[in-house]
Amino acid sequence: MTDDTLTAAPPTGYGRVFAVREFRAVFVAHLLSLLGVVVSEIALSVLVYELTGSPLMSALAFALGFLPYVVGGTLLAGIADRFPARRVLVVCDLVCAACVLPMAAPGAGIALLLALRCCLAVVAPVFQGTRMATLADILGDGDLFVLGRSLLRIVSQSALLVGYGVGGLLLTVVAPRHALLITVATFCASAVLLRFGTRRRPARAGAGTALVTESLKGARQVFANRRVRVLLFLFWVPPMFSVVPEALAAPYADDLGAGSVGLGLLMCALPVGTIAGELWAGARLGPAARERIALPLVCVTLVPYVAYVLHPGLSVSLLVLVLSGAGSAYTLGLDQWFVRAVPEKLRGRAMTLLTAGLMTIQGVGMALAGVVAEFAGVAGTVAGAGVLGTACCVLLAVAARRTECQDGADQHVTGR
Q: What do you get for the CA distance between the two ends of the chain, in Å?
């Protein structure tokens, strides 16, 4: 990225990031690897069900894509800073391809399938955290980074809308094990793009103690910075509550008598709102405006859930979810604060922790929603999530405001 590129760029809009050649490679690689993940999740779930005939085992195969995130995100986070980023990304893609390939073998049993699924989930946060840190190297730690991150999130949310449907159609013409070979190809293609489409950069931190020790030390250093710690919780806490309606969409659709069509709409509404909110904030607002609205938005994004106390019908429920999803535009402001507050030598580990924590906390939120709904009912649980989640968000917003003077400071934590 040259100074000329930045000078000629318009003040807002996503088009600027595509003018950066390395970002184009990262973006296409993201599309490919995301396609591979979606296909593998559907194919593996179907394959496990065919082998066991158990809905529980099929669901477990899907859940194992989330649970081990915390392992890779804490014990292996040091990889993101210890080795050159391009090498980490390419190796992670190749490891994922190597894990999926045995799944496609005719003799692969259920134990092997689930074990390899866990391996994929352990690698994922290292890859995603390293990629996030690499975006800051490619696009800088300013507005282009925020827009680049936003685009990758929009693609991921879009996958929730169309990816699983396309994957389901694919399995009508291709056997699950053959579909897994498509995943192998997408991971390999992503590795090639990242290897030849991005330039080599040195590691952010040299090799020191053992990897696990270094990863845990990095986590302590990240959490020692009060500003970074508050921002991490601002990333994590709202999604823990926002997933509640999605987790309970099936029983709520049943309560409404909305059928499978209603269930599909309830599952799509939140991602639609999220995509719309991010596109609006990214395309229409400048960096200063996105930062100004971040804390007000985070305080109100869960408020629409309170309407569930009235047991709304399908149309109102969809509107509630779209409005709440649109509030997720606060993440663009948080992205800017986070990359500014994290010391560069800890950037890879901090981004990996952010990714791992986000996936883990959403899993926890889904599980707790199911437990609470057994006693409070679906509508009461969603409304309660709106009240409690809003209270938590307000407290975190106040804490974030108090730490604003530390934004970009506290760099001394790298020496602890």
A: 33
**256/263 Cα distance (integer angstroms):** 10
| Long-range pairs for 399-402: beta carbons < 8 A, 24 or more residues apart | 399/230, 400/230, 400/231, 400/234, 400/295, 400/337, 401/295
* Residues contacting residue 341 through CB under 8 Å, at least 6 positions apart: 225, 227, 228, 231, 406, 407, 408, 409, 410
- The C-alpha atoms of residue 230 and residue 262 are separated, in whole angstroms, by 37
Q: What is the pTM of this model?
A: 0.80
d(CA 253, CA 89): 41
304, pLDDT greater than 90:
yes
Mapped onto helix, strand or coil, the DSSP state of residue 203 is coil
Taking CA atoms, 27 is separated from 30, 96, 141, 160, 274, in Å, by: 5, 18, 17, 17, 19
Whole-angstrom Cα distance, residue 307 to residue 384? 10
Whether the pLDDT of residue 195 is over 60: the answer is yes
pLDDT for position 329: 93
What single letter denotes the amino acid at residue 100?
V
Assess contact for 330 and 301: CB atoms under 8 A.
Answer: yes
Is the CB of residue 77 less than 8 Å from the CB of residue 361? no
Q: Locate 310 and state its tokens.
A: 């009235």
Q: Among 230, 193, 222, 191, which residue's Cα sits nearest to residue 352?
A: 222
* pLDDT score of 1: 42
Q: Phi and psi (nearest 5°) for 410?
A: 60, 30
Q: What is the mean pLDDT of the chain?
A: 84
How far apart are alpha carbons 111 and 116 in whole angstroms?
Answer: 9
Amino acid at position 177, single letter:
R
Rounded percentage of the chain residues whose pLDDT exceeds 70: 88
Q: Are 222 and 342 in contact (CB under 8 A)?
A: yes
H-type alpha helices, 159-225: 164-170, 176-197, 211-224
Chain centroid, CA 243 distance in Å? 13
Query: Hey, what amino acid is at 148?
Result: G
Q: Mind listing the pLDDT tens digit for each residue in 348-362?
A: 888 888 988 888 888
Inter-helix orientation angle 143-158/287-300, to 10°:
50
Measured CA to CA, the distance from residue 87 to residue 78 in angstroms comes to: 14
64 Cβ contact partners less than 8 Å away, ≥ 6 residues apart: 114, 117, 118, 121
Give the list of residues 6+ apart from residue 258 with CB closer than 8 angstroms, or none: 265, 266, 314
Distance of CA 387 to the CA centre of its chain: 24
